Amino acid sequence: MKIAVAGTGYVGLSIATLLAQHHEVMAVDIIEDKVNKINNRMSPIQDEYIEKYLKEKELNLTATLNAEDAYKDAVFVIIAAPTNYDSKKNFFDTSAVESVIKQVMEINPDAIMVIKSTIPVGYTQSIREKTGSKNIIFSPEFLRESKALYDNLYPSRIIVGT
Ligand SMILES: NC(=O)c1ccc[n+]([C@@H]2O[C@H](COP(=O)([O-])OP(=O)(O)OC[C@H]3O[C@@H](n4cnc5c(N)ncnc54)[C@H](O)[C@@H]3O)[C@@H](O)[C@H]2O)c1
C-alpha cells in the first residue's frame, strides 16, 4: 500500500519506519534538514530502534518536503503533526493538523486520514462535521520518546475510533 505520514517527529518517524518494512511510505515534513537526514538514513531524533532500522533494514521509505507528491496517491495519510498545549490559553493548537487535513482534502479526498497527534476530546467529531469528511479517524499514540519505534513494534494496545 502507499502510505503517507505527515510529520517526522517521534510519532511520525516511528510509524513511517515500522510501515516502510512492508509498504511504500512517503514521510512529509516542513524542515529540510530532517528530510535530508531521513533520506540519508540518519535519524533526526534520538531513538535506538529508529537509528538501527534506518541503518540496517531494507525500508521503502522516502522523506519529502513536497506534500502533493506524498498525498496524491496514498491510501492512508497518518497525521503526526505537532499539537502543542498552550497552558495560558488552556487549549491545544491543532492548526498544523488542520493544515494537513486541508491539503489532503484538496489533493486526495479519498485518502483515509488517521490522526495520531494528541487532540482534545470531541475534536474528531467536530473536524468531521466542519470538513464534511467521513475519512478522518483517530488512533491515539502511547509511545515513549527514545523508545518510539520499540513501542510501535510491540504496542500494548491499539485504539481506533471516529
Ligand atoms: N512524543 C511523544 O512521546 C508523543 C506521544 C503521544 C502523542 N504525541 C503527539 O503526537 C504529535 C506529534 O508529536 P511528536 O513528538 O512526534 O512531535 P514533533 O514536534 O517531534 O514532530 C512533529 C513534526 O511535524 C512537522 N510538521 C509541522 N507541521 C507540519 C505540516 N503541516 N506537515 C508536515 N509536517 C509538519 C514538524 O516539523 C516536526 O518535524 C503531537 O500532537 C504530540 O502531542 C507525542
UniProtKB/TrEMBL annotation:
Which spans of this chain does the record mark as coiled coil?
none
**Pfam families attached to this UniProt entry:** UDPG_MGDP_dh_N
Q: What GO molecular functions are on record for this protein? A: NAD binding; oxidoreductase activity, acting on the CH-CH group of donors, NAD or NADP as acceptor; oxidoreductase activity, acting on the CH-OH group of donors, NAD or NADP as acceptor
Gene Ontology BP term (one)? polysaccharide biosynthetic process
Boundaries of every UDP-glucose/GDP-mannose dehydrogenase N-terminal domain copy: 1-162
- Organism of origin is Faecalibacillus intestinalis
Source domain of life is Bacteria
Protein's UniProt name = 3-hydroxyacyl-CoA dehydrogenase NAD-binding domain-containing protein
